[in-house]
Amino acid sequence: MISRQTHDVRVAAGDSVTFYVWATGDTPMTCQWFRNDNPLPGWTNTYVTKTLGTNDAGMYHALLANSYGAAQSTNITVT
Fold first, then answer.
1. CA of 54: how far to CAs of 37, 40, 77, in Å?
2. Cα angle at 5 between 16 and 40, to 5 degrees?
3. Torsion-angle region of 37 (φ positive above 0: left; ψ -120 to 50: alpha; else: beta)
4. CB 78 within 8 A of CB 58
5. Using 50, 70 and 90 to split pLDDT, how confident is the model at 3?
6. Which residue of 31, 75, 76, 78 has the lowest C-beta tally within 10 Å?
7. CA-to-CA separations, 1 to 6, 7, 45, 68, 77, in angstroms, rounded
């Protein structure tokens, strides 16, 4: 169950943004971040800080999974 996450963000090109998601559940737990439903290579931690450019606007979400199932965060809009 996801208990906390990043909210919508407005950034300028070159700004750093921290995406985070916290969940409760049994470990080990995996994490994968997505932008516009496409997996982001290397974005596999629950806490990710990235510098974004003008082409990085979109809808972001994380998918957390363990041996019992998966939970998806709500969409985070980056403009």
1. 18, 16, 14
2. 55
3. left
4. yes
5. confident
6. 75
7. 15, 17, 16, 11, 21
Using CA of residue 54, residue 55, residue 59, residue 62, what is the dihedral sign? negative
Q: What is the DSSP letter of 55?
A: G
Strand partners, 42: none
Task: Enter the pTM of the model.
Answer: 0.90
Residue with tokens 């800080």: 49
pLDDT digits (tens, 9 = 90+) for 57-68: 999 999 999 999
CB burial class (10 A; 0-12, 13-18, 19+) of residue 1?
exposed
Radius of gyration of the chain (CA): 12
Q: Which pair of structure tokens corresponds to residue 11?
A: 């950034």
Q: Which amino acid is residue 33, in one-letter code? A: W
> Over the stretch 17-75, which tens digit does the pLDDT of each residue have?
999 998 888 889 999 999 999 999 999 999 999 999 888 999 999 999 999 999 999 99
